[in-house]
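Thread title: Can someone regenerate the structure for this chain?

I was given the following input by a collaborator and told the matching C-alpha cells would be attached. They weren't. Posting the sequence so someone can regenerate them.
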Amino acid sequence: MITLITGENSFENDRAVRRIAAAFDGAVERVDGETLELKQLPDLLMGATLFADKRLVVVKNLSENKAVWGGLPEWLGRVSDDIHLVLVEAKPDKRTKTYKELQKAATVYESKLWTERDAGRAEQWVVEEAKSLEFALDKKSAHALVARVGVDQWLLSQALQKLAVVGDVSPGVIEDLIEPNPAENVFNLFEAALRGNAPKVRQMIQTLELTEDPFRLFGLLSGQAFQLAALAVTDAPSSVVASDFGAHPFALGKLAPFAKTLGKPGAKKVIAAFAEADAGMKTSVAEPWLLIERALMKVACL
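Best answer:
Regenerated them for you:
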C-alpha cells in the first residue's frame, strides 16, 4: 500500500502521518528521503524484517533526491503487501514521471495552506479543536483568537494548548494570554500612526526592533497601506474589498473608519510616504528602521 501526502500545509501533513501511525500496530520506520540511496530501495520496499511482519515506512522529502525520485517508478509495483509506504512531499514537481505514476499507484492526500480567505474555516476549526481538548470556545472567542493569531494552524494549536488549562475562555482572556502574530503587531503599529499617536509609534518601533526583521515588517505595513488606499477609493463595503483582495474582513473592517476619514487625498499621502520609504530601502539611503519610523510619522501628521 502506498500513500502520498503532499501540499504545503505542514500541520495537516503531520496530522495525516500521525493518524496513519496511530492506526498501525508496531514501530514506525522514518526515513530521510534526501539521504536515501537507490541501492537501499529493495530492503526498504520489498518485505518484512526479522522483527515485524507488517511495516509502516514514512519517507519525507524524497523528491529532493533526484536520483532516487527518478528511479522510484520501477519500484512502485514491487512494494510488498506487508508494507505501507507513506511519502510526504511538501511541493513535488507534478510534471515528473514519478509524480504521475504515484497518482496512479498511491492514495493521494493533498493539503493546502490556509490564507486570510479561510478565516471562517479557521474559526470553525478552533471550536472543534477546543472540544477535543475538553474546553468550550464560543464563536465570539473563536473569532477573537483567529483575529489575534491568524490562520496558521501550528500557531492556533499552540494557542489552544495554552487556553486549555484556563477553563473559562473569553476574548479578554485571549488578549491577556495569547501573543499576537506579527500581522497583528503591524496593524497596531499602523493604527497608532493613523490615530496620530507619535509617542506610541516610537515606543512600538523600539520594541519591534528587538525581534522583527525590518524588511518583513515594512512589507506587512505596505500591505496595510495598500488596503487602506483600496478602501478609500471605493464605496464598496469593506467585506467586498476583503473578498476582492483575499484579505481578512475583520482586518479591513478595522481600517475602514480611517479610510473614510482620510478620503482619497489622505490615502494618496499615505501611499506616497510608503513609496518614499520603499525607494530609500532599495537605495540604502538610511537605516531601514529609520525609514519605517519616518514614513509612519508622516502618516501620524496627516
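The chain is about 60% helix and 10% strand.
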